[in-house]
Hints:
The chain is mainly α. The chain has a single domain, classed as 3-Layer(aba) Sandwich (Rossmann fold). It is 55% helix and 9% strand. The chain is built from seven helices and four strands, in the order ααβααβααβαβ. It has a two-stranded parallel sheet. Strands 3-4 form a two-stranded parallel sheet. The two termini are 16 Å apart.
Amino acid sequence: MVDASVVSKWVLSGENYEENAAKLKAEYVAGNVDLSAPSFMVQEVTNSIWKAIKQKRITLETAQSALENLDALQINLYCINWMEACEELAIAAKNDLTVYDAAYLFLAEKMNAQVITADDKMCQKGKGQFRLLHLKDYV
């Protein structure tokens, strides 16, 4: 399981832990790891890229090309139904997380997978309860 904080680093240069993110992507492309995410990750990554466009870190054309390249990677994207959203909400409430972060944790738990993230808050609040790996520790 991979979250938007990691996938965004595949597109935007100058990010923290960019090399670790590139290594994860290479491992995925080589077929050594399987990556999944909730389907809304597409919008999360696109929003990060939009912010970078507004900051003039990347052009619209380069961003669109990058999104096409992300599509070609075919990360497994999962739609969450309303009943699963109830479980996400419980995780969010229990751990004081956004529902978006809780969705990654829920899906990882459901799939018996680990979440790889660069989100310090998610790692701190989910530590000991969920299988989380901070991108800085990806080797």
